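Q: How would the structure tokens look for this protein?
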Amino acid sequence: MRRRTWISLVIALAVLGALVLALYLRAKAPPEAARLLPESDAIIYVNLKPLRAATHFDEAQVTRSSDLDRFIDQTGIVPERDLDAAAFALHRMPNPHGPNGAVAYSEVFVGHFDGRRLAQYLSSIARSQETYAGQTIYTIPIEGRQLRVAQLGFDMVAASNTPTPEQIHSMIDRSRASAVSSPGSSLLAARFHNVPLLAQAWGIGHIGLPFAHNGQISFLGLQLPVSSESDLVASIRWTTAVPLHGGSADLRVEEFAGDPMDAERTVNALNALLGIVRGIASAEPPRGPADIALRQVLDSATLQHRDDRAMLHASATLDQLKAILSAHDPASAAIQPETTSNTATSKQ
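A: Here is the predicted structure in token form.
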């Protein structure tokens, strides 16, 4: 009897250990949407489910274009409600003055989609269709570019506006392989291990490409002392055990300079720039909650030099993020007069 008890206990512990190991490996593995992306210069991934659960942005009023309204009416897909995750691959274009500009994009979207209605909509706006590996690819002309779209599954859609179909073909090929045999692109294999565990949003590679000008990265009107060729890993991770319930978001950006002296120069230059920005901000009184929140986030920023890496850390609470985002939301300004008018009417 005692022997059977020990055997049962060992089996239970082995099963529990295997389950814990599987969950750990799953947490450490790149998300499937990112693994399906083709070879690229950079990858950006966003998990929208925890953000939606915390901020309820899907319940906010949104002003939409007529094209987006038509898309929602015909497909039943409401992006802020139905989109759960998105992964983007950034492709540097050899001719920055071409129809794609400096960067082309490939995307994988995960969410709740009505496949039949989406296929009907894509077919109605596509200039042409092709079949590749059993999947229909819809080619849609948009502002001088060709957007290729394919449904990879009932909950997954891929798109690419690169000049050739190579990238959309690659995503279809990866989706047809099993999750185990699809490790992803070479960039994902090389850099994903630098992404903090359980980060809700992250980017790896030359993620400054969309903001690059003359070889430098510009952001919010400021030219950063970081080359557009820099290999970066940026992430946002909530520091509490229960994501987005209290605590704060930890922003981390690492530059892999390749040389300790280069990394030290980057930290010194960024420290000087951060000091200037803080000085300018403190010279004037804050103009509202968003201004106060932005200053608090800037005050939390620290820079560190470690071997060949330059690292920036900053933190923001959920209330601070809401204040900053609401101030830069074009929809909030657009709906404010209507809301005020309705309120005034109801009081009469």
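Confidence is low (pLDDT under 50) at residues 21-27, 329-348.

Residues 2-28 form the longest helix (27 residues).

Upvote if useful.
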